[in-house]
Amino acid sequence: MSDTRRRVKVYTLNEDRQWDDRGTGHVSSTYVERLKGMSLLVRAESDGSLLLESKINPNTAYQKQQDTLIVWSEAENYDLALSFQEKAGCDEIWEKICQVQGKDPSVEVTQDLIDESEEERFEEMPETSHLIDLPTCELNKLEEIADLVTSVLSSPIRREKLALALENEGYIKKLLQLFQVCENLENTEGLHHLYEIIRGILFLNKATLFEVMFSDECIMDVVGCLEYDPALAQPKRHREFLTKTAKFKEVIPITDSELRQKIHQTYRVQYIQDIILPTPSVFEENFLSTLTSFIFFNKVEIVSMLQEDEKFLSEVFAQLTDEATDDDKRRELVNFFKEFCAFSQTLQPQNRDAFFKTLAKLGILPALEIVMGMDDLQVRSAATDIFSYLVEFSPSMVREFVMQEAQQSDDDILLINVVIEQMICDTDPELGGAVQLMGLLRTLIDPENMLATANKTEKSEFLNFFYNHCMHVLTAPLLANTSEDKCEKDAVVGSNKSNAICPDNYQTAQLLALILELLTFCVEHHTYHIKNYIMNKDLLRRVLVLMNSKHTFLALCALRFMRRIIGLKDEFYNRYITKGNLFEPVINALLDNGTRYNLLNSAVIELFEFIRVEDIKSLTAHIVENFYKALESIEYVQTFKGLKTKYEQEKDRQNQKLNSVPSILRSNRFRRDARALEEDEEMWFNEDEEEEGEAVVPPIEKSKQEDDFPDSYEKFMETKKAKESEDKENLPKRTSAGGFKFTFSHSASAANGANSTNNKSVAAQTSPASSNGSSSKNTNLTTAVTAAKGNLVGLVDYPDDEEEEEEEETSPRKRPRLGS
After folding, report:
1. Counting Cβ atoms within 10 Å, is residue 308 exposed (0-12), middle (13-18) or buried (19+)?
2. What angle do CA 217, 218, 219 make, to 5 degrees?
3. Which residues share a beta bridge with 19?
4. What are the C-alpha distances in Å from 568 to residues 561, 562, 670?
5. Which helix (H) or strand (E) holds 437?
6. Are 784 and 748 in contact (CB under 8 A)?
7. Residue 505 and residue 496: Cα distance in Å, rounded?
8. Is residue 497's pLDDT more than 50?
9. pTM over 0.85
10. Percent of the chain as helix, strand, coil, to the nearest 5
11. How buried is residue 1: exposed, middle or buried, by Cβ count under 10 Å (0-12/13-18/19+)?
């Protein structure tokens, strides 16, 4: 065993300023890598466990007392002492400490202390130190008391001593009696001293003193003292505000007197902290930490007491949902709940769980559903805040409720649809409420926070529910503002833009931008649900109408939506885009933008650059074959030339491989860009879902013999010739940039199978071509492009259709995917 020289007892000072014995062991000073410095280590002599590990800090004041005692403060309220068995051991460790701090070992204190009498604390080790002597509590001593209180704030040890003295002598109540005397005598000087004294006592940061100061009998006098700030010409009237202006509203009478007292106390203390006391400086910010804790624990107690009183909460819910309740009362009830939920944030996680479960059991969600649909703006705003607390706490709980509700209610009154309608109908010009609701919707539809069970039920069930019952409500404003009949009206007026129907109203534009942001999120996270929805509703075409908006932020939102879709590199989407000729509005926007170098210009070019870098062959071919003439004049970036080069390289490669078509079709090595679909995605596309209308990309398993294809093509060509006279109006127009500008009037109906019976039959009859992996180029050119641009010579080379069909047979993108 080590020699007795190093044998020590470890003491720590407890909250009652008593020394606690932490055990006996042997001390050593060694370099500790983790603490990056020389440290004092004490290992217990009983089992060798670590009793103390304390880094010797260069700035800490260490004191040597009575030859065998070393004392120091580790933190603001954590004092330590080592009591050595032998003087030699104490001297040895003291030398090490002085060495680290660069001091002469002959000193008794390694740093200058503010308080020279501190060593008195340790003359009798286990006993309490001497207290500060307070002046008698008299009017003529107020200045002396104020000086004393402000002087101790810089020393943690003296603060402790003063706090103990104040507590032991019942000094605060005496001071508050003096305050009443001063106020009656209108003794301004005395009142100014009392302000300094009471403020200083608050900064002592002692919970025991707060208990006295914030009791019912004292708190108003404390507030009174704090009215007389010497820096103010006139005292503030805080007491008048607390007693007359601030009204305590009991939505339901609170019978528990202790609870009422706690609520009053918490409000007043919060008022002192937030309103009366000046914002603490950097040096003072820790002075009020105990005050913050005092308020915190009061709130915890209030929530717990209310939560346990089930009768009270049941009554609140009953009145909230009762139709007979008048509007003012309901507003107060909702505001009560909002504050109640705000208080609940102070609870520990397990207690907060219990709190929200209690609310859920009592029916908070159906109650919210009623109040969120009300006309009163204040009620709706408070209900939204409560809803946000619930969504933040448990999105799954909210999802479960709306799915159960869907089984017995109409779509119109579903909670999520009520939320979406609130978002759409937000009257605030800046859409503050709509932005908040959009964030909540995003949380609810985010698969990342859905419970990951073995069979993924929550994700699939909730998304099925959302797309069947809610998505049409969310997209309604978007579809209404980009409707076909509006397009035609604008085309007739002969507006310069292809269809300048975009909302010029800033508020509507902002709303559409929010909806697009949510839809873009869906594209990234919902795979086949959103894919099916986009194709059934021809949603991307409608979104791209917004490329004409005078609000650039909205045009960029539309472009971002398309960019996310292309970013997935999914051939279903790529075929949909090429068949619908959906690059046309984007290219028109680029040409309309002219030579301006702005965000829109950069974003469009980045879209094409992505296609070039990722080598998305089907899109590259479509862009080069249909739009290269309009784009070749853009030379300040090499993007479009690069696309042309990629296209030509691919064409050469295909020509070289014409003889080995079958082997290529069978090969798996060309699947590198195709997104592997999950099994459930395969099943989704194999289901025949036509509730929403005819799909733009027809269900692939409805195959017919390929022999039918020529008939449908001939029928289509007859229709095309009949339309050619109309198409003459749609020749490309030159823009200021020198390129072509395409019109947009027929392509919408041509590509959307739901709009024209001829096109529907073509789409249905050409499906075998797709399912067998052979060319769908004919349909691409005929349904999507030719109808819109019958006279664009050079962009569509009809005589070479056969050759292009052969090229596409070898294209790795046209493999059979689903019908197998």
Report:
1. exposed
2. 110
3. 13
4. 11, 10, 17
5. helix 432-444
6. no
7. 20
8. no
9. no
10. 60, 5, 30
11. exposed
Q: Which residue carries 């508050």 as its tokens?
A: 176
How buried is 588 (Cβ within 10 angstroms: 0-12 exposed, 13-18 middle, 19+ buried)? Answer: buried
Q: Which residue has the higher pLDDT, 664 or 224?
A: 224
Q: With beta carbons less than 8 A apart as the criterion, state whether 336 and 251 touch.
A: yes
Choose the weakest-confidence range: 490-504, 518-532, 649-663, 748-762: 748-762
Rounded Cα–Cα distance for residues 176 and 197 (Å): 11
Residue type, 415: L
Identify the CA nearest to 534 among candidates 509, 564, 557, 510: 564
pLDDT exceeds cutoff 70 at 124: no
As a whole number, the mean pLDDT across the chain is: 76
Q: How far is CA 701 from each of CA 16, 666, 708, 804, rounded to the nearest angstrom?
A: 82, 19, 16, 25
Listed in order, strand segments (DSSP E) in 580-720 are: none
**27 close to 8: Cβ distance less than 8 angstroms:** yes
DSSP tally for the chain: helices H, then strands E: 37, 9
For the stretch 637-649, what's the b/e string if a residue is b when 16 or more beta carbons lie within 10 angstroms of its beta carbon?
Answer: eebbebbbebbee
Bridge partners of 83, per DSSP, are: 9, 69
| Residue 613 CB partners (closer than 8 Å, separation 6+) | none
The pLDDT of residue 771 is 39
Contact assessment for residue 779 and residue 579, using Cβ atoms and an 8 Å cutoff: yes
DSSP designation for 375: S
CA nearest to 787, candidates 814, 755, 764: 755
Largest alpha-carbon pair distance within the chain?
114
Query: What's the CA dihedral at 561, 567, 568, 571 to 10 degrees?
Result: 100
Total residues belonging to the chain: 820
User: Which DSSP category does 118 fall into?
Assistant: G
Q: Is 773 left (phi over 0), alpha (psi -120 to 50) or beta?
A: left
Token readout for 65 is: 């007392």
Distances (CA, A) of 570 to 185, 567, 575: 85, 8, 9
Residue 465: count of CB within 10 angstroms of its CB:
18
Say whether pLDDT at 758 is over 80. no
Cα–Cα distance for residue pair 22/25, rounded to 1 Å: 10
Query: Taking 70 as the threshold, does the pLDDT of residue 712 lie above it?
Result: no
- Of the pLDDT bands very low, low, confident and very high (cuts 50, 70, 90), residue 580 is very high
Q: How far apart are CA 350 and CA 164, in angstroms?
A: 36
Q: Are 176 and 126 in contact (CB under 8 A)?
A: no
Contact present, 588 and 741 (Cβ < 8 Å):
yes
Measured torsion, CA atoms of residues 799, 800, 803, 807, in degrees rounded to the nearest 10:
-140
Q: How far apart are the first and last CA of the chain?
A: 82
What is the C-alpha to C-alpha distance for residues 596 and 590, in angstroms, rounded to an integer? 10
Pull the structure tokens for residue 689.
């879902």
Spatial distance between the Cα atoms of 697 and 766, rounded to a whole number of angstroms = 11
pLDDT grade for 488, boundaries at 50, 70 and 90: very low
Please tell me the number of Cα atoms within 13 Å of 304 on its side-chain side.
13
CA distances from 734 to 517, 661, 744 (A): 33, 41, 15
Beta bridge partners, 70, equal 64, 82
Integer Cα distance of 327 and 362 in angstroms: 22
Report d(CA 401, CA 440) in Å as an integer.
15
Residue 763's Cβ-count burial label (10 Å; 0-12, 13-18, 19+) is buried
Q: What are phi and psi of 739, to 5 degrees?
A: -95, -170
Tokens (6 digits) for 161: 């001593």
Distances (CA, A) of 303 to 268, 317, 533: 17, 16, 45
Nearest-10 Cα torsion for 103, 106, 110, 113: -140
Weakest mean pLDDT among 278-287, 463-472, 479-488: 278-287
Residue 660: which H helix or E strand, with range? none
